[in-house]
Design brief:
Two copies of one chain form a homodimer. Chain A is mainly alpha-helical. The first copy, chain A, is built from six helices and two strands. The first copy, chain A, has helices at about 1-25, 25-35, 40-45, 55-65, 85-90, 95-105; strands at about 70-75, 80-85. In chain A, a hairpin with a 5-residue loop joins strand 1 (about 70-75) and strand 2 (about 80-85). The interface of A and B includes residues 9, 17, 26 and 94 of A.
Chain lengths: ~110, ~110
């Protein structure tokens, strides 16, 4: 009984953490843009209407810290920075795709 | 070009709305409990470690308002209240299952 509760709590902790990570405003949209090979800062920003520079900057840092995004600096002139999904980030693709389908099927365009 | 932007914005609006709905703390766990036929208030609460009465009450009201949960009052003595997923709520099942699998595969038990 104790084991069952402990494993239930571990399950819940992981699930909450996942929901909190993905559920933050803009995070899902940024991950989708990265999944569509938009790998430069301005490309990502221009793909998502309403996303500010400041917010994109914060979210990319969070995603990097969480191990979902890798920031690669290419030593060209000028320096080029590219953002790529890590395997952990790419594995979220099917989750976001299925949420996207649900939203299209069940929500009004302008809630 | 304008049409493309408009449809991009409509897409984003739906997706943000979906993420905000599902991404709130406890909401995903409550939907999963309801999907497992835990349809009474105390059953749902006891399934989710750490969920308070107050929070469950608030979340169920939000889910009812969003059309994901139906609250059925059975005129027995004493009155019985059951919570059930609507078709819109049930359609979220695959999304939550896939997020759950991702969390189990990629997150530590105690982040």
């Amino acid at each position: 009984m104790t084991d069952q509760n402990a494993s239930g709590e571990a399950y819940c902790a992981r699930f909450h953490h996942a929901i909190e990570l993905v559920g933050r405003r803009w995070t899902g949209a940024i991950l989708i843009a990265l999944g569509c090979e938009r790998d430069r800062y301005t490309e990502i920003r221009d793909t998502i209407p309403g996303l500010s520079d400041r917010m994109l900057c914060d979210r990319l840092r969070e995603l990097e810290a969480a191990g979902l995004v890798h920031r690669a600096v290419h030593p060209t002139t000028p320096v080029q920075v590219r953002y790529q999904l890590t395997p952990k980030g790419r594995a979220l693709g099917p989750v976001l795709d299925s949420l996207s389908r649900w939203a299209n099927d069940w929500l009004e365009a302008d809630p």
